[in-house]
Amino acid sequence: MGKCTCCDSTLRFPITVSCFRCTVCQTINDLKPSIQRSEPITPLTLDRIRSMIDTCIVHSNGKGTPNYELLEQAIQKAFSNWYILNESFSNPESVIRSMMKSTENILKRPGRMLKRKEDIKFLMIILENPLLGQHNYPQELYHHHDIIKRIFGLLSNLSNELHHYLVNWFTRLSVNIFRKRIELVNSFITFLLNKQRNTSPRIPPDYESDWKISSAARVMALLYYIDLLTDYNTWEQRSGKFAFCQYPFLISMGGKIKIIDYDAKRQKDMKAQEALYTIFFYKRITTPTLNLKIRRDYLIEDSLKQIENSLKHIEDYNSEIGMELKKSLRIEFVGEDGVDAGGLRKEWFLLLVRHLFDPKFGMFTWDEDSKLCWFNPASLETSDQYYLVGIVIGLAIYNSTILDVHLPLACYKKLFGIYVGLEDLKVFQPSFAKGLEQLLTFEGDVESTFCRDFVGEYEAFGELKRVPLIHNGENMPVTKYNRGDYVERYVNFVLNDSITEQFESFKRGFYHVCGGNALSLFQPEEIELLVRGSAEPLEIDELKAVTVYERFSEDEETIRNFWSLFREMDPQMQRKLLTFVTGTDRIPATGLANLAFKISCIGEDSER
User: What residue spans define the domains of the chain?
Assistant: First the structure.
């Protein structure tokens, strides 16, 4: 009895046999060597292969295609015999060192400028060398990385045309080989960073001035120069094929925004087509856009009622609740002129968010230290109002609109089902969290000093509400021995238990709009940046570079005066002007390059 060397199946066979065939995988297992070492071994060598090719050509007498039967027989014999195969690919260490040294020499001096496809094939051949990723001792490690840095340096500085050629080359690689290329770049960058840290542990790594790191990063960018939208579609199909979307940490923020914008446009187009289909085939009036007619004095009521009506409408005709919200949003303020080309929508978002998050409205509390808000456990508003807030934030993401929303990261972590704890509480209620930390580290008599029991507290319109954190918690004092449990329960009370109804309604509204696959590519920090935008300093020159002019030219006196006045403003006034134009004082997550800043001339003597 024995085990198959391939599938590990247990098999029975006579003790006298020299081999047996596995009945599971059909592998023939040799119990004794099938070829004796006394048999002459003729390994394949480069010289032998060249000789056989020359022989085949000579025998053809220059007539027709050479008959490579002799070469085919030699290859078949070599690859059918593990002794010969081993000997064919066994090189003395001196030969390996010579090959690696020669490789380094040609990389130091390629011999010509690398301008054509043919000029860079040798780099692709060198990359096939598996020894580049194998290091048996430190000296070899440094030597191989010296070779790798030159490969990456040459590849990174090729022309755009050759970079496109390389990208096409990379896309034809098998998944396993492609992953090995990524691992090679990753290990090289890790090696360089560790080397810098070990050399100067107190000095931060200097990425910018190290050409080796820059070159490796550019090569990594070539490896990731993929068709993101095709990759996203492949991933959505769950076909089992490799897709970068399986590893979203490899995709940049800009790439993820491109995907979510594509997903939003795709679903909006789909809803527009469905609207036309409904009109023609069912004779039912519908629109390809989500139109909201809002009275300014009834902003909340009108918004909530019309969003609810749109959901009821879609519920009546099919079960895809929330898909109506994925139409393009159009806003009309009742009694006012104006067609929504984006400005009215931004104003609606701005006014609605300002009203919903106003502490006076009672839905959210405000912390003066952190300048952040949180769900009010004592709110008298209905769950529909929190549902509306979730929809508004979802619509903002879906319509590429930045909101002036001061929710902490903990909110977005909860949306993704990620644990939140004391560290999250410290962000938006720093004073209270500091008090809990002091309780945890206090050296004296905890019970008599803090006089706390297992009760959570919150203020409800001037009255202090007390909620037991455990059964009979109002009669259980906090001591040195149970303070850890107390703090954990209190943090959970603030972040979860006291706001369960409010947050679940908010979450339901958010996912009615943003429940697609694209959202799962993001981390909570990225969603926060997507919703709020970035607070990085406003660079006037960068803003000017992306500004679009309509019926104005950049060198007109009016435009020159505008930018001159803009520069003279203090930063606070500049932010206010940015808010007037875009609806928020923050810039997009991917920077000013993606900000829509437009200056239009609407008439000769207009007062508007």
Answer: 2-41+81-225, 533-600
Helix (H), strand (E) at residue 528: helix 524-532
Domain 533-600, CATH homologous superfamily name and number? Hect, E3 ligase catalytic domain (3.30.2410.10)
pLDDT digits (tens, 9 = 90+) for 173-188: 888 888 888 888 888 8
**Which stretch of DSSP H or E encloses residue 289?**
strand 289-294
CB 405 within 8 Å of CB 532: yes
* Integer Rg of the chain from CA: 34
Half-sphere exposure of 503 (CA within 13 A, CB side): 20
Placement of tokens 């954190």 in the chain = 469
Alpha carbon of 492 to those of 362, 450, 603: distances in Å? Answer: 22, 20, 59
pLDDT digits (tens, 9 = 90+) for 425-461: 999 999 999 999 999 999 999 999 999 999 999 988 8
Parallel/antiparallel/unpaired status of strands 548-550 and 463-468: unpaired
Report yes or no: 384 and 348 within 8 Å, Cβ to Cβ.
no
Q: Amino acid identity, residue 125? A: I
What would the pLDDT profile of 117-155 be if each residue is shown by its tens digit? 888 888 888 888 888 888 777 777 888 888 898 888 888
DSSP 138-183: HHHHHHHHHHHHHHHHHHHTS-HHHHHHHHHHHHTS-HHHHHHHHH
Per-residue tokens: 602: 């609407």
State how far the Cα of 498 lies from the Cα of 501, in Å rounded to an integer. 8
